């Protein structure tokens, strides 16, 4: 089966850190720019970050700038989202998705989605 698999979520206190991973199964991830999304109960799905195929260009939603960092290791077929200084409002299920359009910052369809990983920020 061709899919993305997220991991690394969990329960963390405010101010803590987590690193999420997005690994490709059955295809090579280096052909795709990757988006991270998140969705909290009762809220709309929100685009968090994007990284291009080479990793040289990235985008972030304003609410996570300076706290989150997206990166990739194409040799490991994996994209990462390092999340620091976590806040309760970061609580959500986080998803990664492979873009049809390589350029970040433009609307696109998605070729693959992951199943999501839960991030809970609470004291």
Fill in the keyword field for this structure.
123 residues; seven-stranded mixed sheet; four-stranded antiparallel sheet; 0% helix
Q: Could you please describe the fold and organization of this structure?
A:
The protein is an all-beta fold and 123 residues long. Helix content is 0%, strand content 49%. The strands form 2 sheets. Strands 2, 4, 5, 6, 9, 10 and 11 form a 7-stranded mixed sheet that branches. Strand 4 (34-39) and strand 5 form a beta hairpin. 33% of the residues are buried.
Question: What string gives the helices and strands in order?
Answer: EEEEEEEEEEE
What is the residue-mean pLDDT, rounded to a whole number? 96
- Helical element count? 0
Tell me how many strands there are: 11
Helix content: under 10%
Structural class: mainly beta
Radius of gyration, whole Å: 13 Å
Layout of SSEs?
Blueprint: E1 3-7, E2 10-12, E3 18-25, E4 34-39, E5 46-51, E6 58-60, E7 68-73, E8 78-83, E9 92-99, E10 110-113, E11 117-121
Parallel strand pairs: 2-11
Antiparallel strand pairs: 1-3, 3-8, 4-5, 4-9, 5-6, 7-8, 9-10, 9-11
């Amino acid at each position: 089966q061709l899919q993305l698999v997220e991991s690394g979520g969990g329960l963390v206190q405010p101010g803590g850190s987590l690193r999420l991973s997005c690994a490709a199964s059955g295809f090579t991830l280096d052909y795709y720019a990757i988006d991270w999304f998140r969705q909290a109960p009762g809220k709309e799905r929100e685009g968090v970050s994007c990284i291009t195929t080479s990793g040289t260009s990235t985008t972030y939603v304003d609410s996570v700038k300076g706290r989150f960092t997206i990166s990739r290791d194409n040799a490991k077929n994996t994209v990462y989202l390092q999340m620091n200084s976590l806040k309760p409002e970061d609580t959500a299920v986080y998803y990664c998705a492979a873009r049809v359009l390589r350029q970040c910052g433009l609307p696109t369809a998605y070729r693959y989605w992951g199943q999501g990983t839960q991030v809970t920020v609470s004291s």
